[in-house]
Amino acid sequence: MKVALIGVGQAGGKVTERLTRFDANMGFEAVQGALAINSAKPDLQSLQFVDTQLIGADRVNGHGVGGDNELGAEIMQSDVQQVISNLDGRITSRAEAIFVVAGLGGGTGSGGAPALVHHLQRVYDVPVYALGILPGRNEGALYQANAGRSLKTLLREADSTLLIDNDAWHQQGESVEGAFETINDKIARRVGLLFAAGEVVDGVGESVVDSSEIINTLRSGGVSVLGYASEVAAEDSSENIRTVMTVARQALLTGTSMPDATAADAALLVIAGRPERIPRKGVEKARRWLEDETDSMQVRGGDFPLESDRLGALVLLGGAERSERIEAFMQRAREAKRAQGETKPDVVDQLTDDRLENLF
Ligand SMILES: Nc1nc2c(ncn2[C@@H]2O[C@H](COP(=O)(O)OP(=O)(O)OP(=O)(O)O)[C@@H](O)[C@H]2O)c(=O)[nH]1
């Protein structure tokens, strides 16, 4: 799937850069263009692999918004025309989707990403998705409250919001900050493989995934979740039936970006590996298992031919907001908001539709 990536804020920029680099190193060419936007100049200067744009210089002079996500939303609103013109040529007609990437706990990404998605939806015909990073449990009340407000608005504005829980992909005992490198690397690999899986590969069979299957899986909107697991494969495909089941189970049950999210409106199972090692029978069995497990009748499946000694399973869930983990997060965000005595409406809500209209 050809995508354009726009990172907002520090986490957004770092993850966008990682993803772009992974895609280039692997030679996938799924990432068609990438731009990192921030109100903090030093954060942009540390990026080497993507184009950058500073916003809000008149308000915060390149120093960031210090966790104030209302200010983050406001400066995005003020500078959105410049952002949109900067995207000209970066989002080409080849792009099949746009992903806006942001950490939802801070200020610039948390407030800026929903506002930007809102505007992109008016300008572009392709789906505009968000890739949102939720703060880990121990990340402090401001982050939780910010992320809760940002997420509510993103769910309304984006065609689907792919969530990554910062607690999902790091070792126990390791601090979240210490684990950023690992987490970002895992996001880049998994999401990068998903994009690449949707690329049409010439000369291979009809069981190969294409981008419409990703888009259809995400069609119901709401929250989406991505899981991955891999194992060494045997040379003979018939010996890999159990391996396919194992990696599919691990991808969903222990490898997802939002642990415990299993119920979904739709799902996509992608099996990656050398085509001659992928057992059709195993893939079919794993797909049926996924149907039961997600309680969804819409489970798509396909292969992703990849030169590797391993077999990998990618599981994408669409419409997965009914999970306990997301409910627990929203509860945490509500409590944090209450503890701060906040009664303010959600980030973009308070920038009334009139003001949004006036920008166009
Ligand atoms: N996974 C991951 N999360 C990050 C990273 N950097 C920051 N975060 C998370 O993102 C949230 C903070 O957002 P940032 O992106 O740092 O903040 P910002 O959007 O730049 O906003 P301001 O700094 O307030 O202007 C917190 O939940 C952090 O844990 C990173 O490199 N990887």
Compact summary:
Its main location: cytoplasm. By secondary structure, this protein is of the alpha/beta class. Helices cover 44% and strands 20% of the residues.
What order do the helices and strands come in, and which of them pair?
Layout: E1 3-8, H1 9-26, E2 31-38, H2 41-45, E3 51-54, H3 57-60, H4 69-87, E4 97-103, H5 108-123, E5 128-134, H6 141-157, E6 161-165, H7 176-197, H8 211-217, E7 223-232, H9 241-253, E8 266-273, H10 280-294, E9 298-305, E10 310-318, H11 324-339, H12 353-358
Parallel strand pairs: 1-2, 1-4, 2-3, 4-5, 5-6, 6-7, 8-9
Antiparallel strand pairs: 7-10, 8-10
The site of guanosine-5'-triphosphate has 28 residues, from helix 1, helix 5 and helix 7.
Overall description:
- It contains twelve helices and ten strands.
- With 360 residues, it is α/β, with parallel strands linked by helices.
- It has a ten-stranded mixed sheet with strand order 3-2-1-4-5-6-7-10-8-9, sandwiched between helices.
- Helix 1 crosses helix 7 and helix 6 packs across helix 11.
- The C terminus is likely disordered.
- The structure holds guanosine-5'-triphosphate.
- The site of guanosine-5'-triphosphate has 28 residues, from helix 1, helix 5 and helix 7.
- It is found in: Cytoplasm.
- It comes from Natrarchaeobius chitinivorans.
- Belongs to the CetZ family.
- Involved in cell shape control.
